[in-house]
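User: quick one, sequence for these tokens?
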């Protein structure tokens, strides 16, 4: 047996003097890139002015334009939308009256008024006038039915034709009002109880 000293324990590899000592860092997974929201490009209708920084806040995609290219406050109706909803308010009464035997004619103008009253003065006036006129007609129909019941049906030969005449007159007036609204003109019904304004 030889008397040789035991081999030295394994050690780290020898470094040269100019290498810096490296410290092992724990593994950190790379962060995922957060998706950036897409920038919405302003879209203006044909003939409408493009936004420049000197004319106020930038276009937000919600802005509307009237027929002359001027911007409207968000929420207001354009001229063509106001005209359309005014026509709908006037014609909703005769259409609803057909399907409800004259009892729900006031509902259409009331719904249009409730939705658009703050978005267009034209629609507000048209729907309020149509509702007020419809309410007046409704009171007339109720009075005619009361007369029919009080007379035990004997007056039905008078009241039923009167109801039909009232319906025809209201149909004619609503159509005239819708035509006026289509021409951007106001129409005032001849007999109305001013409940809505």
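Assistant:
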């Amino acid at each position: 047996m030889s008397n040789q000293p035991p081999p030295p324990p394994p050690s780290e590899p020898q470094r040269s003097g100019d290498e810096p000592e490296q410290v092992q860092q724990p593994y950190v997974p790379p962060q995922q890139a957060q998706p950036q929201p897409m920038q919405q490009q302003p879209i203006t209708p044909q003939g409408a002015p493009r936004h420049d920084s000197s004319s106020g806040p930038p276009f937000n995609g919600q802005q509307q334009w009237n027929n002359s290219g001027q911007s409207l406050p968000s929420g207001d109706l354009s001229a063509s939308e106001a005209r359309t909803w005014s026509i709908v308010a006037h014609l909703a009464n005769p259409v609803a009256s057909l399907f409800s035997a004259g009892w729900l004619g006031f509902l259409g103008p009331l719904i249009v008024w409730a939705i658009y009253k703050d978005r267009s003065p034209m629609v507000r006036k048209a729907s309020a006038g149509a509702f007020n006129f419809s309410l007046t007609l409704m009171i007339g129909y109720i009075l005619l039915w009361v007369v029919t019941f009080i007379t035990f049906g004997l007056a039905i030969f008078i009241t039923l034709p009167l109801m039909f005449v009232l319906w025809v007159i209201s149909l004619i007036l609503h159509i005239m009002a819708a035509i006026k609204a289509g021409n951007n003109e106001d129409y005032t019904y001849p007999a109305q109880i001013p409940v809505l304004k």
